[in-house]
């Protein structure tokens, strides 16, 4: 979940990776079936985990189930020894599982033949933990439990109270254990997220140890820390391994991952996708709307951008392809819709809980701040979808599925638990209790569908899956304590903030210009940071390093925190990494880099709205902070600004027609001025939008000839769509396999006619995926 909250469990293996999708007769690759929603091949904060089976898999599941029970117990009966004691026990449970569930990536000697079942193909060889994995898991258990073990080892050990009494004066054994835990956490991060975050952590450690050797005239120089002081700050303080990030992971995030796993096993994820398909099945832009709505709804289960993009793409790409969307544009749309899962209430990304904890506000308050930015984000995507539908003259795709009302009547109860979370938060129930109550409700409601009943065995599986989903986040949050502790001990945050502000002041003395330059530099720094580290770590590092600079310039703390949060999340669609776009491109078969740029185009409003938070006072109105009328006018102006930017990037004025270079330039400038939210800039922006409309109308009258009598208009959407019947193959617009004109494209569900079985286009085999659409009704609605 690198930043997902309630993320889909990391169960993908090399066999389910998009790089190894089964091929089709035409040489294309087959996208995963919709039934694979629970096993996406990508996630934004983790590498694929092992699929453990046999005794090892059972043992890991039992330990994960025990950790889930501990987490639930802590909600209602907190351990009397305090929060840090609980975090020690929690880390003792999850850190060993990381070494068993995630591969080392090292080239070890191949397994002997007796380890492989006779006749089993190479791809089916058992993926078991190695001897090194077991040693590291055992060592992790020892060093994590060491602070609470009642055994005395010379002047060390002696239990939890004695360990706390030695704060600042650690015994040699304490230092050794802390150093071992440091190494193990860095290795756990490497296994789950790759090399970048461990290298960042090591750089901060080197800065803490060698910073005293820097010239004292440098702004970032400090007195220096010895190794014992560093270990003490990490191992025996509230700002190190057991600091706020791990506290949030062990208190909030794990409960939401459990909730997501319960929803997924109860069939909610599948229902959300089917509902989106059914709701928009007749309009010309239905395919794009379906992808966006599916991303939003499935995000309530996943909370993970890349996993959501892949899961939604597995179902909606066949529809998008038959409608005529190019692979790169469809991939960009899927990536942007998936990232919306991390930005959308009520299950924001993991970093949102850290925002609430750092600012000491309720999670409901953070949800309130995210409402208008979320609306602006999806308004931008939907406008881009409508524009692309006209630019590419996409065909209507009629999906032969049950009506949306019928689906809602039968499975609409899946929304109940989401509503309960918001209602309970509104009446003052804590976030952790609210999500537990919502999870209990989801379990009870699962018995309304006999296919997804959460029997005791399946409920235990859901609890264990939820804990497995939090493993990479726990490793990241514990390792992030290295950054926060080093920053706190050395004062790096204040020093870097001062350096950033002085750099802006060197250009101009005007306070507005200084703020604008600081914000621009901060946005660039956060974007670059997000390319290298997961979302959660990106926010933590960005807040402790860049946050103080914004606060020093008078930016309110909520605006500064949400600015850092949004730019941390948007690394998912920022080239050259853009993991959500990479996952979407693997599904659509499109080129990766063009897909990244398309994702960036769809997500553009999300890049500019956070700047509006911090540049002017009215920017806070976009966070819902202000009088209702102020919030209303700021929201409306923001919507107009987003619409102008959509025209600039899409090249089309809805209701008018194509937008030329002049109109696009005018709307681009207008969008920027409108989002500045100053009366003068708003007036100029509205005038520029009006001028762009006038120019487009004049250009249309001069250049667009009247269509012949009776001819359909491609602009107005009157062009009849290509028909697919009885397996007739239909490719993208202009493709060689386009079928006869005369009806809309039909994508039939299981057992239907239409395009079932068709294998057209670059991702052949889509018909088999389309057969999965609408299957939620099953026999109960036939």
User: Uncertain segments of ≥5 residues (pLDDT<50)?
Assistant: 1-46, 110-124, 710-782
- By DSSP, the count of extended strands is 6
Any idea what the radius of gyration is?
A: 27 Å
Strand order of the largest sheet: 1-2
* Helix-strand category: mainly alpha
Beta-strand share of residues: under 5%
Shape: globular
Largest beta sheet, briefly?
A: 2 strands, antiparallel
Helicity, in percent?
A: 55-70%
Describe the model.
There is one protein chain. By secondary structure, the protein is an all-alpha fold. About 60% of the residues lie in helices and about 0% in strands. The strands form three sheets. The chain has a two-stranded antiparallel ribbon with strand order 1-2. A hairpin with a 3-residue loop joins strand 4 (about 650-655) and strand 5. Helix 5 (about 170-195) packs across helix 7. It is globular and about 90 Å long.
């Amino acid at each position: 979940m690198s930043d997902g909250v309630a993320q889909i469990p990391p169960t993908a293996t090399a066999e389910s990776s998009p790089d190894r999708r089964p091929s089709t007769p035409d040489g294309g690759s087959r996208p995963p079936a919709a039934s694979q929603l629970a096993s996406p091949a990508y996630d934004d904060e983790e590498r694929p985990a092992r699929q453990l089976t046999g005794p090892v898999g059972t043992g890991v599941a039992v330990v994960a189930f025990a950790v889930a029970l501990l987490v639930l117990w802590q909600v209602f009966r907190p351990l009397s020894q305090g929060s840090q004691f609980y975090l020690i026990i929690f880390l003792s449970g999850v850190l060993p599982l990381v070494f068993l569930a995630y591969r080392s990536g090292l080239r070890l000697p191949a397994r002997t033949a007796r380890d492989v079942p006779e006749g089993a193909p190479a791809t089916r060889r058992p993926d078991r933990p190695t001897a090194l994995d077991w040693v590291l898991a055992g060592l992790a258990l020892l060093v994590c439990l060491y602070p609470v073990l009642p055994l005395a080892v010379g002047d060390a050990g002696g239990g939890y109270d004695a360990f706390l009494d030695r704060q600042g004066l650690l015994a040699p054994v304490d230092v050794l254990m802390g150093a071992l835990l440091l190494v193990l956490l860095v290795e756990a991060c490497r296994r789950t997220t790759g090399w970048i975050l461990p290298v960042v952590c090591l750089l901060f450690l080197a800065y803490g140890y060698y910073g005293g050797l820097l010239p004292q005239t440098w702004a970032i120089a400090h007195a220096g820390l010895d190794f014992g002081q560093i270990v003490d700050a990490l191992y025996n303080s509230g700002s190190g391994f057991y600091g706020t990030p791990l506290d949030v992971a062990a208190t909030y995030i794990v409960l939401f991952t459990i909730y997501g796993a319960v929803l997924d096993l109860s069939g909610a994820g599948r229902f959300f996708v089917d509902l989106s398909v059914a709701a928009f099945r007749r309009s010309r832009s239905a395919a794009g709307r379906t992808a966006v709505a599916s991303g939003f709804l499935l995000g309530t289960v996943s909370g993970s951008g890349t996993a959501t993009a892949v899961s939604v793409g597995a179902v909606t790409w066949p529809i998008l392809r038959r409608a005529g969307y190019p692979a790169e544009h469809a991939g960009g749309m899927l990536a942007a819709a998936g990232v919306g899962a991390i930005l959308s209430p009520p299950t924001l990304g993991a970093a949102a809980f850290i925002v609430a904890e750092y600012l000491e506000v309720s999670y409901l308050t953070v949800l309130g701040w995210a409402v208008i930015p979320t609306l602006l984000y999806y308004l931008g995507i939907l406008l881009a979808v409508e524009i692309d539908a006209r630019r590419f003259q996409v065909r209507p795709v009629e999906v032969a599925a049950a009506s949306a009302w019928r689906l809602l009547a039968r499975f609409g109860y899946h929304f109940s638990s989401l509503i309960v979370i918001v209602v309970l938060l509104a009446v003052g129930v804590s976030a952790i209790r609210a999500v537990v109550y919502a999870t209990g409700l989801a379990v009870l409601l699962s018995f309304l569908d006999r296919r997804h009943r959460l029997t005791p065995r399946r409920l235990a599986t859901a609890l264990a899956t939820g804990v497995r989903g939090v493993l990479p986040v726990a490793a990241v949050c514990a390792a992030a304590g290295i950054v926060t502790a080093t920053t706190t001990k050395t004062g790096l945050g204040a020093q870097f903030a001062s350096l950033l502000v002085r750099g802006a002041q060197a250009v101009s003395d005007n306070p507005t210009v200084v703020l604008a330059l600081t914000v621009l530099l901060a946005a660039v720094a956060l974007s670059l940071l997000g390319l290298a580290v997961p979302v959660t770590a990106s926010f933590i590092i960005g807040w402790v390093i860049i946050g103080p600079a914004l606060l020093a310039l008078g930016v309110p703390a909520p605006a500064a925190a949400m600015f850092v949060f949004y730019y941390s999340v948007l690394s998912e669609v920022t080239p050259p990494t853009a993991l959500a776009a990479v996952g979407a491109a693997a599904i659509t078969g499109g080129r990766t880099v063009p897909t990244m740029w398309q994702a960036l185009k769809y997500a553009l409003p999300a890049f500019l709205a956070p700047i509006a938070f911090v540049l002017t006072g009215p920017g806070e109105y976009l966070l819902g902070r202000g009088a209702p009328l102020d919030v209303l006018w700021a929201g409306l102006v923001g919507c107009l600004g987003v619409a102008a930017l959509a025209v600039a990037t899409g090249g089309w004025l809805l209701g008018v027609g194509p937008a030329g270079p002049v109109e696009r330039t005018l709307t681009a400038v207008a969008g920027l001025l409108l989002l500045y939210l100053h009366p003068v800039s708003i007036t100029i922006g509205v005038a520029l939008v009006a001028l762009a409309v006038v120019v487009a109308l004049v250009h249309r009258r001069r250049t667009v000839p009247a269509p012949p009598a009776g001819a359909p208009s491609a602009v107005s959407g009157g062009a009849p769509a290509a028909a697919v019947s009885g397996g007739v193959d239909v490719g993208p617009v202009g493709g060689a396999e386009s079928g006869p004109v005369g009806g809309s494209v039909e994508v039939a569900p299981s057992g239907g006619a239409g395009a079932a079985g068709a294998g057209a286009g670059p991702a052949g085999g889509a018909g088999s995926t389309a057969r999965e659409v609408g299957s939620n009704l099953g026999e109960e609605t036939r």
